[in-house]
Specification:
The chain contains 11 helices and 7 strands. Strands 4-3-2-5-6-1-7 form a 7-stranded parallel beta sheet, with helices on both faces. It starts with a helix and ends with a strand.
Length: about 325
C-alpha cells in the first residue's frame, strides 16, 4: 500500500512539473497561491477535529503558516502584476489531499501526521524538480523559496510526530509520567508536551524566555506564565530575580499535592539563565525545584541546548534530569 501510494505521488509529481515546467511566473504564482490557500482550510479543519492539545496546536500552526505564505505570495503577485488577479492553472495540487481521520486514538494521530509529512515532502520534491527544469529564472527562484517553505512545514510536523512516538515508547504520557526532572533539547517539543500535561489536569507554572505569539498564545491560556526578560512588562520577571522564585514555586508544588493534584514547573532555555546567573546558581535553582517535585510528586521540565554547555556541565544536567531527545 505504501509503495503504491509513493508510486502514485511520483506520477503526480511529474504531471505537475510537466504542466508547470514551461509556466510563466504569473501562472506559477497563481498555482502556489491557490495551493497555500487550500492548505489553510485543510489544516484548520484537522485542528477542529483534533482532541489532543499538542496535535490541535500543530495543525493550527500549519494553518497559520500557510496563511502567511499565501499572503506573501499574493503580495508578490500584486507587485509583479498590478491590478490583476491570479489565473487558474490546470495542474494537480501538490499540497495535501483530503484526509479527515477520526483523530481519536494515538494511531489516528500517527496516521494523520504521517500523511501530512508525506504531503509536505511531496510538495518539496515537486518544487525542487520544477526548479531544475524551469527555464525562467524568476520561476526557478520562486520554486526554491517554496522548497524552503515546505521543508519548514515538514520539520515542525516531524517534531510533533517524534515527540508523540517518544512519549508512547518511553511511557512519558501524562498518565504514566513519573515525578522528577525532565530535560528537553527542543523548545517546541517541550511546549507541545506542556499542553498535554495541562490537558491532563497538571497545574503548570512556566518561565518562558520567548514571549508566546501566534498559535502558541494557547500556552498562555493553558498555563501560568512568566516571561523571563530584562524589559519591564506585564507578567514578567528579570533573570536576576528568578532564583528568588524557588520558594513560591515550591509552595505551588506543595499546594497542588495537598489538593491531590500534580504540579509542574517549566523553565525554558536554561542556557540563557546560565549566562545571566552563572552555571552553579542556575543549576542550584533547577535542582532545588527538582527535589521539591520529587517530594510533592510533581515535575520540573527544562529545555537546554547541549551546545550552550561544556561536557562536564551537560553530563551533570543529564545525570540529574531525564533526557527527552
Amino acid at each position: 500500500m505504501r509503495k503504491e501510494k509513493g508510486s502514485n505521488l511520483n506520477r503526480i509529481t511529474f504531471e505537475v512539473v510537466e504542466k508547470l515546467g514551461g509556466a510563466t511566473p504569473k501562472e506559477l504564482l497563481s498555482y502556489t497561491i491557490m495551493n497555500e490557500e487550500a492548505e489553510v482550510e485543510y489544516y484548520a479543519r484537522l485542528a477542529g477535529k483534533a482532541k489532543k492539545p499538542s496535535i490541535k496546536l500543530i495543525f493550527k500552526r500549519m494553518s497559520e503558516e500557510s496563511e502567511k505564505h499565501a499572503y506573501l505570495l499574493r503580495r508578490l503577485f500584486g507587485k509583479l502584476f498590478p491590478e490583476e488577479e491570479p489565473v487558474r492553472v490546470e495542474a494537480p495540487p501538490v499540497e495535501v489531499h483530503p484526509l479527515y481521520p477520526k483523530l481519536e486514538s494515538v494511531g489516528d494521530y500517527f496516521e494523520a501526521l504521517e500523511y501530512c509529512m508525506e504531503s509536505e515532502l511531496f510538495a518539496k520534491r515537486t518544487y525542487e524538480l520544477l526548479a531544475t527544469m524551469a527555464e525562467d529564472e524568476e520561476v526557478k527562484e520562486l520554486a526554491m523559496n517554496l522548497v524552503a517553505m515546505e521543508q519548514d512545514h515538514y520539520e515542525e510536523l516531524k517534531k510533533v510526530y517524534d515527540l508523540l512516538k517518544i512519549l508512547v515508547e518511553k511511557k512519558l504520557l501524562p498518565e504514566t509520567l513519573k515525578p522528577g526532572g525532565y530535560l528537553f533539547t527542543d523548545d517546541l517539543k517541550a511546549k507541545y508536551f506542556l499542553l498535554e500535561l495541562a490537558e491532563a489536569g497538571v497545574k503548570v507554572k512556566a518561565l518562558l524566555r520567548q514571549k508566546p505569539c501566534g498559535a502558541f498564545r494557547e500556552i498562555v491560556k493553558a498555563l501560568d506564565v512568566l516571561w523571563v526578560t530584562k524589559v519591564d512588562a506585564e507578567n514578567s520577571v528579570k533573570p536576576s530575580q528568578v532564583p528568588r522564585l524557588k520558594g513560591d514555586l515550591t509552595s505551588s508544588l506543595k499546594g497542588t499535592s495537598e489538593e491531590s493534584r500534580k504540579g509542574a514547573i517549566f523553565i525554558e532555555n536554561l542556557g540563557y539563565l546560565t549566562v545571566e546567573l552563572g552555571f552553579k546558581k542556575a543549576v542550584d535553582f533547577v535542582l532545588y525545584l527538582k527535589d521539591s517535585a520529587l517530594l510533592y510528586k510533581g515535575y520540573v521540565i527544562v529545555t537546554a541546548n547541549p551546545e550552550a554547555f561544556d561536557k562536564k556541565e551537560w553530563a551533570l544536567l543529564t545525570y540529574e534530569l531525564k533526557l527527552v531527545p
